[in-house]
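Anyone able to model this chain together with S-adenosylmethionine?
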Amino acid sequence: MQNQSVLEAKSAGAGKFYDRIARLYDFTFKFNGYGRSLENYFRRHPLPLPDGAHVLDAGCGTGLLTLSLLRALVRPAVITAVDLSLPSIEKASAAVAQQDHDSRHRVRFAQANLLSLPFPDAAFDSVITSGALEYVPLREGLGELARVLKPGGHLLHLPVRPAFASTLLEIMFRFKTHPPRKVEEHTRRYFQIRAHHRFPPLDPIGWTKSAILAQKQYE
Ligand SMILES: C[S@@+](CC[C@H](N)C(=O)[O-])C[C@H]1O[C@@H](n2cnc3c(N)ncnc32)[C@H](O)[C@@H]1O
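re: yes, here you go
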């Protein structure tokens, strides 16, 4: 295990990279229907959330997942979306302001490293993350997400899985796919896995990703 401050310093590079490529990222993933696939997933597999649930989107980027969630949620929620990259957050914030969604939802943004989140323990009913854990060591990343999640709360993460299309994305977006065995092993370290969803093969999101729903155990 590496020293926490060394890990944080290393992970800061991902933020600087996304400061430069936020527009390219946003364009690429809007083009391939990623947001629409996420929205369909959220509609077909509603997250178990109470009214007014506090949800963390860790590594929100330009807000594609945040926007999908906002479109699909049927109960009012307070979403906190964090990222290392300020230009990405600004893009996400502008997109949320422009999107027509249920006015009962609240969204707030903050610049933060998912390895050292500026929130107290058990602050969130649910944590969602897609595309960010690939930039950090799994044990530390999942450990920090577990810390801020309430006991009984759910984590949804969408790991990239090894595939030809994933290799292209790795090169374009400078990340490393975690081996699926390690993803499951580290998820089980902090959570109970409730479902492992495979996307339909014709859905571009399914070429590179799956979705793992996991629950933090009660103490
Ligand atoms: C592939 S994008 C995914 C964005 C968004 N979640 C989505 O699904 O479109 C990865 C994002 O993770 C962010 N990121 C990488 N490492 C991070 C970290 N340690 N803490 C917070 N954000 C991080 C990057 O700045 C980038 O915006």
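The domain at 4-209 is CATH 3.40.50.150 (Rossmann fold).
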